[in-house]
Amino acid sequence: MSTELKSTALEQVHIALGAKMVPFAGYNMPVQYSGLRHEHAAVREQAGMFDVSHMGEFFVEGPDALPFLQKVTSNDVSKLIPGKIQYSCFPNEQGGIVDDLLVYCFSEEHFLLVVNASNMDKDWNHIMKYTEGFDVNLSNQSDDYSLLAVQGPKATEILQTLTGTDLSAIRYYNFVIGEMAGVKDVIISATGYTGAGGFELYINNADAETLWNAVLEAGQPHGLLPAGLGARDTLRLEMGMCLYGNDIDDTTSPMEAGLGWITKFTKDFVSSETFAKQKEEGVTKKLVG
Predict the structure, then answer these.
(1) Which of 120, 208, 260, 286 is 20 to 30 A from 222 in CA distance terms?
(2) What would the pLDDT profile of 192-207 be if each residue is shown by its tens digit?
């Protein structure tokens, strides 16, 4: 097995900014720049920008894209309309969680799944097991995309200077495709892993440095700082957001993890009978905090 670390398109940019780089989920990633406390405070009070390009992007397309996703995810994908996003999980056959993920709906036949970097190969192998009998095409485009998370109370104000798209009109867990800093076809997503508000921006790798530099420049007068994975973790912990491998794993059910709200029994899905029984009878262990 190769131990060579992967790089995001922005690796050299981070190094030039003096970031402390560490191995994370098989990637060489910035854990901090000016300091964890400083970066954490900037995101809570002004804004911060994270490179989270290590996240995985799987596209699901075809006439059976919706019924396929209904089978492999716990939430009810039929509730999505184009431009909306759903938090969900991949249950396994043993009643645990393969991964938690975001489901982006472009149309009934076109979805994007955003998965955790550390689980990318596991997730891909898992969902590919269920493609038989479904007229669906899956493509793993994780190596083609970069993802910037611009988070904090001033994120909208900063990014609005770079786009003609009305960002204030994009509600939480919604997305549009627009132009930003001259970069076309940006997936502008009102999501994040900090609880501080803001956007996640999906772009082709070739455009990553252009957009990163533009956001840094636009954000400088507003106190925006580049932020590393250390602050991302303390911010999500402060908000009680789940972290796969820490709070949830292959042996934890959604009911045990307090994720009953993303487990919908209006459909049949992997381990749905197990989870329905847990809902009825209660669970013996439960994540708290």
Answers:
(1) 208
(2) 999 999 999 999 999 9
Nearest to 231 by CA among 46, 18, 38: 38
CATH topology of domain 57-142+241-276: Alpha-Beta Plaits (3.30.70)
Output the DSSP codes for 161-197: TT-SS-GGGS-TTBEEEEEETTEEEEEEE---SSSS-
Tell me how far apart the alpha carbons of residues 243 and 231 are, in angstroms, rounded to a whole number. Answer: 14
Give kind and range of the element (H or E) at residue 146.
strand 145-151
Q: How far apart are CA 67 and CA 11, in angstroms?
A: 38
Q: Which two tokens stand for residue 76?
A: 């009810």
Q: What is the pTM of this model?
A: 0.95
| Contact call for residues 261 and 100 (beta carbons, < 8 A) | no
Nearest-angstrom CA–CA distance, 264 and 105: 18
Residue spans of alpha helices (H) in 17-172: 36-45, 65-72, 120-128, 155-160
3-class state of residue 75 by DSSP: coil
Low-confidence residues in the chain, pLDDT < 50: 1, 287-289
Domain ranges of the chain: 57-142+241-276
The C-alpha atoms of residue 108 and residue 135 are separated, in whole angstroms, by: 13
Residue from 225, 203, 263 nearest 41 by CA: 225
Q: What is the CA radius of gyration of the chain?
A: 19
Task: Report pLDDT digits (tens) over 219-276.
Answer: 999 999 999 999 999 999 999 887 887 778 899 998 888 899 999 999 999 989 999 8
Residues 30, 229: contact at Cβ < 8 Å?
A: yes
Q: Is 245 left (phi over 0), alpha (psi -120 to 50) or beta?
A: left
Distance from first CA to last CA of the chain, Å, rounded? 37
Q: Which residues contact 132 (CB under 8 A, 6 or more apart)?
A: none
